[in-house]
Amino acid sequence: MSDQISRTAIVTGSARGIGAAVAKRLATDGMAVAVLDLDEKACQAVVDQITEAGGKALAVGCDVSNEDAVGAAVDRVASELGAPTVLVNNAGVLRDNLIFKMSADDWDTVMNVHLRGSFLMTRAAQKYMTKEKYGRIVNLSSTSAQGNRGQVNYSAAKAGLQGFTKTLAIELGKFGVTANSIAPGFIATDMTKATAERVGMEFEEFKKAAATQIPVARAGEPEDIAAAASFFCSEEAGFVSGQVLYVAGGPKD
Ligand code: NAP
């Protein structure tokens, strides 16, 4: 553990996948971490792993698209762990379909979790960051922001998060708050496993097929994203803001 113990981080959607890896990495970096996800009980395993390794963590149940729940969750983190000055907006869902088959509900669900959720979480957390004159915000975008068949909803949301990030950087910079975006390529998680199931492929085969399109010739792991998040969330990254970092094993996907 480093000496950054005074910082408190919130990682949304961190009961599993990329969020869980980011939460564990920030705890290793010395931060107290709120492991926030839809189901509080589902967060406990990650909290236990962090505390067993000597870190500090709190399980928080919250739907990031629910305004009242977000306000209550962020205030609870502040009172139980300390002012949240690091926020990683990672919670995400897929509702893939070609546009002619996509329902308005599938459009709204994706917008609500990724865009509305990141907006609500950031608005609630920036109160603490601006007061502390310090903050680190990281938004999870995707290579899909550049367009991906079957994902008009998701690619629009992920491109939206890039604009959101740049505007946060402009508005909040004078308060010592940076905002950056990570755009992962193919990362092996339950999300990509579900995509493999949807297209009728074994996950290992699906990963191998993806790797043939990736310059470093392997699928990404959640820890690859956690390493990038660790840098953006560090004290020393204070002059890096408004950036989109593609973490995709190559120039983009
Ligand atoms: P994942 O394994 O599906 O995990 C996403 C987590 O977000 C789940 O624990 C989920 O909870 C939670 N969540 C969903 N809706 C929520 C809400 N309204 N409020 C709070 N939590 C919510 O996904 P992942 O692969 O780790 O992806 C993490 C992020 O990276 C997402 O934003 C995703 O779009 C992005 N990303 C992933 C990849 C990839 O290849 N995996 C690539 C590019 C970008 P439940 O389990 O209860 O649903």
UniProtKB/TrEMBL annotation:
Domain Ketoreductase: 7-185
InterPro entries: KR_dom, NAD(P)-bd_dom_sf, Sc_DH/Rdtase_CS, SDR, SDR_fam
Listed PANTHER family: 3-OXOACYL-(ACYL-CARRIER-PROTEIN) REDUCTASE, 3-OXOACYL-[ACYL-CARRIER-PROTEIN] REDUCTASE FABG
UniProt family annotation: Belongs to the short-chain dehydrogenases/reductases (SDR) family.
Taxonomic lineage of the native organism: Bacteria, Bacillati, Actinomycetota, Actinomycetes, Micrococcales
Gene Ontology MF terms in the entry: oxidoreductase activity
Keywords, alphabetical: NADP, Oxidoreductase
Tagged with keyword NADP: yes
Record's keyword annotation contains NAD: no
Biological processes per GO annotation: monocarboxylic acid metabolic process
Protein name stated in the entry: SDR family oxidoreductase
